[in-house]
Write a structure and sequence with these properties.
The complex is a heterodimer of chains A (about 450) and B (about 475). Chain A is an alpha+beta fold and about 450 residues long. Chain A has four domains: about 90 residues, Uridine Diphospho-n-acetylenolpyruvylglucosamine Reductase, domain 2; about 120 residues, 2-Layer Sandwich (Uridine Diphospho-n-acetylenolpyruvylglucosamine Reductase, domain 3), CATH 3.30.465.10; about 100 residues, 2-Layer Sandwich (Alpha-Beta Plaits), CATH 3.30.70.3450; about 90 residues, Alpha-Beta Plaits (2-Layer Sandwich). Chain A has 16 helices and 19 strands. An eight-stranded antiparallel β-sheet of chain A has the order 15-12-14-13-17-18-16-19, with helices on both faces. Chain A has a five-stranded antiparallel β-sheet with strand order 5-6-10-8-9. In chain A, strand 8 and strand 9 form a beta hairpin. Chain B has about 475 residues and is of the alpha+beta class. In chain B, about 35% of the residues lie in helices and about 20% in strands. Chain B contains 15 helices and 20 strands. In chain B, strands 15-12-14-13-18-20-16 form a seven-stranded antiparallel β-sheet, with helices on both faces. In chain B, strand 5 and strand 6 form a beta hairpin. In chain B, helix 1 packs antiparallel against helix 3. The longest helix of chain B is centred in the last third of the chain and has 20 residues. Classes of the chains: A alpha+beta (about 450), B alpha+beta (about 475). At the A-B interface, strand 9, helix 7, strand 11, helix 8 and helix 10 of A face strand 9, helix 7, helix 8, helix 10 and helix 15 of B.
């Protein structure tokens, strides 16, 4: 660390107060990104303090990465610089809540678990199930537009945000949108922040529309068999009047790993389709009947899970990105996005490629959405993993999609751009970045195209 | 009269049958659904993205403003010109480029009429959700510019929730593609910024949208009230009970009498208000929800609840609702439709407030709106030939919008800011908020040549509504 950075860092205490600057090595290490450890962690307590920190950082050229519980901190390229971790831990209040209006405004540092608990007393929820949801913060979920299987029915975070307050690197707190469910006044700047991975500004507060919790839910499991049958099942389910809340395809490895340690732990030999339906008891009975018919048509017996076990299993499935790296050190997790109907084709190519390279694979596919997660479990070498990632990326591109490396050891990141190639809109993206963060202090180098 | 050098150059680029320049041809393009403004130098009717690029490059070189225009049905002056220039009218870019049912996507040109997309996929059991009242005329490109909504966006989201990808011509003539056919393409969500940007950032030349599966069952209820407040309380109660209808519309007595006279849809002319409620989904779910809604309506003193028995009855009720503006045109020389949003629970109090405003300014104000969203459309009747009245109308509208903001609402829910509300923006945004918007505008359009004078305030402080007095509708 240079002397200039050292002295700039010491000035931070005058911005947020001594008690809100932590330099203890263990705390700093817990927020390390790709082998880079911040020199301090800041815990501002208000939107204005966040803005003041950013302004100070911009003036003194300190690189800042916003964070909370680090559930998605590993996503992105290796940061060019990283001086300060800006934690929103102290910003966890509900600012405005109108249960009868189904709207709520909360600070960015509130954990999704606390938030969900808070609104559930009125029979409401924010229907999201991204990886690590319970520990993740609202701001983090928005900054990464993180979603899970519930997206099929309810949409992504971007579909649920009504407005935001954002701290900028100029030291301002700006507003976009509002608190009501419809609003087209001005540019929809919230959309830019959602999925920007902390590179434009810090989401200090957000307003959401809430949804009533389904009266009942039921989970059904169908053996999927070969990919041809999966395709048939997917297409029949999506064309049926049934509207599943979640619909996923788990390969045998993923299913087995996900169920391990739950009351449902068992040997799994074949890929499975998991499906959750919501509604009244009568609606669920109707769905059960339809699914049974569907299963018969393709020769797949359908079974229904106990409600309690189902919830545990779904949480485990959504959370794979949290527990998998612990269960399989060295794992690389890839997110493939593509037109939904190409899912099986991609999976079959991926399985072939992995077999050729002797890489053990686990996959988790959100049917009907066109999002797949591939986990490269074991490989002979990092080189084999990298070669496979490259070939899988071109397979995704061939099928009209893209591939993002969401989790891997950082030495892989030095040889593969985690986001993949940019498009003809990149020049505009770079200008947008410059408009928000002229000094380039927010998570520098981590995002698409090195932004 | 001879064409100007600019017109001759445009003709060379796109052909003489695609350029309008005689004053009598341009007159039609002075208007949109709100009002009239100035006359453009020329109107160009491109057929391809390449045409749009060529037109934009020429305009930039000549320093001439460019205003994109769909069907001109907008209600905030978004497609009228303020400083002359070239109108790029997309009416010939109306192809459906691709329908991909397996992926539930369609790729369309911007001039495609909204309803035509749903009709094209209807036989296969799909539809395009956003359904503005003008859907028989308005274009998908225009919907993207305004982030349009409609009665059925209550449950399924507005235009921005259904658009995945855009091809856009920027003011420098560059063509970019943002978003994709699939979700979550890595990078900033420029598509999300462009939707609702009112033609001030780029001209959209191709749109990838999501198609949705038509529901198995639909039930439409008409709940009839003797008091307005009972209707608005019903709306709040339906929301609070966690029932999600696919549409929840309200019409007050004044409006529904006008509608009934014009369409004979069967609306009760002696009532104070009606709610038009629709639920859809699985048969069983629809039955249950319809019962729940009926119960809520009765608890809130509905005089009568009618169920549309056939598809024809349903169609007739909706036709009445969607053609209501035309119906009002029959009874008042002019009317002015406002668009504001409030939290749904505040509807009873807001409608009372609107009544007070009407009394204060001696005006007749009808209400017909997306009640489930809290999206108000007060309709102020007046006679544009009376200048004093026009002034009162403007003041009444401003007071209603200011009240929306005080209640924690918005100055526009779906019609856009355009020319009309640009100077009301400071009512809801700070100087810092607006500064960031201006900066984003210059990222795309540093010279300010795309749709100048729209969306962003012209001065620093708060101004008033801008609505030009004309002989037709509007003031």
């Amino acid at each position: 660390m240079t002397v200039a950075v050292q002295s700039a860092l010491s000035g931070l205490t005058s911005v947020v107060g001594t008690s809100r600057v932590v330099r203890d090595p263990a705390t700093c290490a817990s927020l390390a990104v790709d082998g880079r450890t911040p020199a301090c962690v800041l815990y501002p307590s208000s939107a204005e303090q966040v803005a003041a920190v950013l302004q100070y950082a911009a003036q003194h050229d300190l690189a800042v990465i916003p964070c909370r519980n680090a559930t998605k901190l590993g996503v992105g390229n290796v940061p060019r610089r990283y001086d300060v971790a800006l934690s929103l831990k102290e910003m966890k209040q509900v600012r405005h809540y109108e249960p009868a209006d189904l709207t709520v405004t909360a600070e960015g540092g509130m954990t999704f678990g606390d938030f969900q608990h808070f609104v559930s007393r009125d029979g409401l929820w924010l229907p999201l199930d991204p990886p690590g949801a319970w520990r993740a913060s609202l701001g983090g979920i928005l900054a990464t537009n993180a979603s899970g299987p519930l997206r099929l029915f309810y949409g992504a975070p971007r579909d649920m945000v009504l407005g935001m307050r954002i701290a900028t690197s100029e030291g301002k707190v700006i507003k976009t949108g509002g608190r009501v469910v419809k609003n087209v006044a001005g540019y929809d700047m919230a959309k830019l922040l959602i999925g920007s991975y902390g590179t434009l500004g810090v989401i200090v507060e957000a307003s959401f529309k809430l949804f009533p919790l389904p009266r009942a839910r039921a989970t059904f499991v169908l053996p999927a068999g070969p990919l041809g049958i999966t395709r048939d099942l997917r297409s029949r389910i999506l064309r049926s009047p049934l509207q599943p809340l979640r619909l996923v395809l788990l390969d045998a490895v993923t299913a087995k790993l996900a169920l391990a340690g739950t009351p449902l732990a068992r040997e799994v030999k074949e890929p499975e389709i998991w499906l959750e339906m919501g509604g009244s008891a009568r609606v669920i009975e109707r769905c059960a009947g339809e699914l049974e018919e569907l299963g018969k048509a393709v020769g797949a017996p359908v079974y229904r899970l106990e409600a309690e076990n189902a919830e545990v299993a779904w949480t485990r499935i959504s959370d794979f990105r949290t527990w998998l790296p612990e269960a399989c050190p060295g794992v690389a997790i890839l997110k493939v996005v593509l037109p939904d109907a190409a899912s099986e084709e991609f999976l079959s190519r991926a399985e072939q490629e992995a077999e050729n390279d002797k890489v053990a694979l686990a996959s988790f596919t959100q049917l009907g959405i066109g999002i797949l997660h591939l986990c490269l479990l074991e490989a002979e070498s990092a080189t084999a993993r990298i070669a496979l990632i490259r070939r899988l990326r071109s397979a995704a591109q061939d099928l009209g999609g893209a591939l993002v490396v969401e989790h891997c050891h950082w030495d892989i990141k030095s040889r593969v751009d985690v986001w993949g190639p940019t498009g003809d809109d990149f020049a505009v993206m770079a200008k947008v970045k410059a408009a928000w963060d002229a000094k380039g202090i927010l998570a520098p180098g981590r995002f698409v195209g090195g932004l | 009269m001879k064409p100007s050098p600019l017109v001759r150059e445009l003709t060379r680029l796109v052909g003489s049958d695609a350029v309008l320049w005689r004053p009598e041809d341009l007159m039609l393009y002075e208007y949109d659904g709100l009002s009239s403004a100035g006359q453009p130098h020329a109107v160009v009717l491109p057929s391809t993205t390449e045409h749009v690029v060529a037109i934009v490059k020429l305009a930039t070189r000549e320093n001439v403003p460019v205003v994109a225009r769909g069907a001109g049905t907008g209600l905030s002056g978004g497609s009228v010109v303020t400083e002359g220039g070239i109108v790029v009218a997309t009416s010939r870019m109306k192809q459906i480029v691709e329908i991909d049912l397996e992926n539930q996507r369609a790729r369309v040109q911007p001039g495609l009429v909204n309803l035509d997309l749903s009709l094209a996929v209807s036989d296969d059991g799909y539809y395009y959700v956003p359904d503005p009242s003008s859907q028989k005329a308005c274009t998908i490109g225009g919907n993207v510019a305004e982030n349009a909504a409609g009665p059925h966006t209550l449950a399924y989201g507005v235009t921005t929730n259904h658009v995945l990808g855009l091809e856009v011509v920027l003011p420098d003539g560059e063509v970019i593609h943002t978003g994709a056919k699939f979700w979550d393409r890595p990078g900033y969500d420029l598509r999300g910024l462009l939707v609702g940007s009112e033609g001030t950032l780029g001209i959209v030349t191709e749109i990838t949208v999501r198609l949705c599966r038509k529901p198995e069952a639909i039930t439409t209820l008409l709940s009839i009230y003797d008091r307005v407040v009972d209707a608005t309380r019903t709306v709040a109660a339906i929301t609070a009970r966690g029932i999600t209808p696919s549409a929840l519309e309200m019409m007050d007595g004044f409006t529904l009498r006008a509608v009934e006279e014009a369409t004979h849809a069967g609306y009760p002319t002696d009532s104070a208000a009606v709610l038009l409620v629709e639920v859809e989904g699985l048969r069983e779910a629809v039955e249950e929800q319809a019962h729940q809604i009926e119960a809520v309506c009765r608890e809130n003193q509905a005089r009568e609840i009618r169920l549309a028995q056939t598809a024809e009855e349903r169609e007739l009720l909706w036709r009445g609702r969607k053609n209501a503006f035309g119906a009002l045109g029959r009874i008042s020389p002019s009317y002015y439709v406002q668009d504001g949003v409030i939290p749904r629970t505040r509807l009873p109090e807001m409608l009372e407030y609107i009544e007070q405003v009407a009394r204060k300014y001696h005006l007749l104000i009808g209400n017909m709106f997306h009640a489930g969203d809290g999206n108000l459309h007060p309709i102020i009747m007046f006679d544009a030939r009376d200048a004093g009245q026009a002034q009162r109308v403007r003041q009444a509208a401003e007071e209603i919008l200011a009240r929306c903001v005080e209640m924690g609402g918005a100055i526009t829910g779906e019609h856009g800011v355009g020319l009309e509300k640009r100077n009301l923006m400071p009512l809801t945004f700070s100087a810092d908020d607006l500064e960031m918007m201006r900066r984003l505008k210059s990222v795309f359009d540093p010279k300010g040549s795309f749709n100048p004078g729209k969306l962003l305030p012209t001065g620093q402080g708060r101004g008033g509504l801008r609505v030009q007095v004309s002989t037709g509708e509007g003031l």
